[in-house]
Amino acid sequence: MYYKEYGAAHSKMIVFIHGGGVSGWMWDQQVAYFSQRYHCLVPDLPEHGKSRGDGLKFSIDTAADQLIELIEEKRKGRTVAAVGFSLGSQVLISMLGKKEGLIQYAMINSALVKQIPFATMLNKSMIMALPLVKNRTFAKAQAKALDISDKYFNEYYQETLQINKHAFLRVMNDNATFTIPSSFHTYPHKILATVGEKEKKIMKDSMKEMTHSNPNVQGIIFPKVGHSAPLSVPDLFNRLLEDWMENDTIIDVKKEEN
């Protein structure tokens, strides 16, 4: 698995796990903020970014195992926080279920944990739309919806062009059928679950399910934001994460945004 690391001399480590269809670059604004005080570890998931050439096929389970192994290699006794987004959040939830003592702070952003009805049939139909996804004009619209800036559009678009239908179907199937593992219910460390105010109801219901599944989960809704909080409101996102980790407090995101 390809990864980058920054600020390796620092005493605490944050692992940033990107979403589907992008790669580690999506966390650049978080790395710029946190790398002066934390050791930041930024992997590319299997069949994404620079891990695409490794030959390993993506699954949430496989990615979780690989990241656990990487963190165990790199942590060197550090306190570990992990931050996931969308597909990366599902990978993070799987990691928490597999290795109880590895991560002390888990920030789960925009994670789908409720199965989509008829997901297999839906995903197969989406394969027909894959050529549209690779259309530059369509990709521009998708990038705008995710608040991907012009600075990163070419990188986003080039990665989109490299998606093959088999990888696309694997990612979509895993994403749409993911549910919370039973071991998550008793995870003893701190978990922060977030969702954007403009996200679909199923995403908000997923956050509620996580808060009801484990008393250690706190839920936050980012105001005026869709499925893109780390990119849309990076300053607010970073302050929320830092204050939660360092002071065990949750800033008032509505007040901070206004």
TrEMBL record:
One of its GO terms (cellular component) is membrane. It comes from the Bacteria. GO terms for biological process: acylglycerol catabolic process. Keywords: Hydrolase. The keyword Hydrolase applies. InterPro entries: AB_hydrolase_1 (IPR000073), AB_hydrolase_fold (IPR029058), AB_hydrolase_sf (IPR050266). Residues 14-239 form the AB hydrolase-1 domain. Signal peptide: none annotated. GO terms for molecular function: monoacylglycerol lipase activity. It holds the Pfam family Abhydrolase_6. The keyword Hydrolase applies. This is Alpha/beta hydrolase. It comes from Bacillus mesophilum. The lineage of its organism: Bacteria, Bacillati, Bacillota, Bacilli, Bacillales.
